[in-house]
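re: ur question from yesterday

yeah so i grabbed the chain u mentioned. its 420 aa long if i counted rite. heres the sequnce exactly as i have it in my notes:
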Amino acid sequence: MLTLKIHDLSSTGEGVARHEGKTVFVDGAFPGDTVDVRIVEQKKNYDIGELLRIIEPSEYRVIPRCPYVPECGGCAMMEMDYSFQLQWKHKQLCDALERIGGIHSEVKETIGMDFPYAYRNKMSFPVQNGKVGIYKKCSHDILEVDNCLLQDEKMNDAFRRFRFILPDYSTYDEATHKGGLRSLVLRRGEKDLLLAYARKEKIDPQKMLDAFQDLSIVENIHTGRGNALLGKDEQILRGSGKVELKVEDLSFFVSAASFFQVNLVQLNKVARWMREHIRLNDNAIIFDLYGGMGVLGSLLAEKAKEIYCIEISPSSIRDGKHAARVNGLDIQFIEGRSEIEMEELTKQGIHPDLIIVDPPRKGLDGKLRRSILEVSPEQIFYMSCKPSTLARDLKDFVEGGYKLEMIQPIDFFPHTTHVE
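ran it thru and got these structure tokens back, copy pasting raw so excuse formatting
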């Protein structure tokens, strides 16, 4: 047994300590804790420790509002003071930029939330072996819960009603690849709520329709293996199959499978920043890459001559086209991979003044980074969800001649280790 002082958190939320020249990762420990630990796994450059006892708790520890901490795998930082969470996310970003990107530019303080709960407009819950809930930490075992503090009471009420009728249905078994229901997705709009369920084998949807007469309901057919919660095919059983979400003065009608930022409060802060700070001439051309429904490009539509939104998801493309029509915007939507379709546009002689990128956690494809440098737009707006890949990509752009104007972390995911 070792007694260790925790001095940092890893990017995935484990406490970090040092012992005899090696890093020790301790799940459940936080900066400032003094803890007793047993080493359970030894690697060449680090050890993994099991937390046995907190001798002296960190000054940043708080009593979590959530009764499912620490068993639930959703919120790694729920036991930490929110102001500390914001400081830590700022540090994570700075460390990644310096260590990976060699970037020492000023990073603004993290923009947090006044009320860092009930912020998610979409929640996804796995269904397996008669259970619905949230995955336990580092496993595919389902923790059954009554509610989640990250969604509002309307979503929690719908979740509880779903759980109540679940015994009436066959449920999926990941090991045998058999069964009916395999996931639940709730999506909240300004005034509406969408319930989507995925199933492998056919089920009778009538009890679902009877239990949720107040909601739009979508049946998703998911017959493939793997842990994706939704499949490619769906049918609307009631309502429009969409919810309305507003960003500034624009309306977006979002399906269950479409990509849309889950934190509308923070997205609106990004929207206001973009409109205030991004300067374009009247003939500007915008490429919105990994564009989802084209939300970020739409915010600048009044300033631009042409906007091209490239997105690989058919659902997001359909919803984006619908939103553009509703908002009276002229946006060209292209379904495909950004690194391929952008090259096709430039071959046609279309050259962007501004490129917007909002990639997944893996960041920009290497080919796309090179293509952006070759096209050399006047401005790049990069919205990232992982500091390490952001640092890697920014390193290429800076070495390619770009100057960093501003780096602003925004807390889209309070109580988790993620930061935008």
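noticed a couple things. The longest strand covers residues 46-56. also The two ends are 38 Å apart (CA to CA).
anyway ttyl
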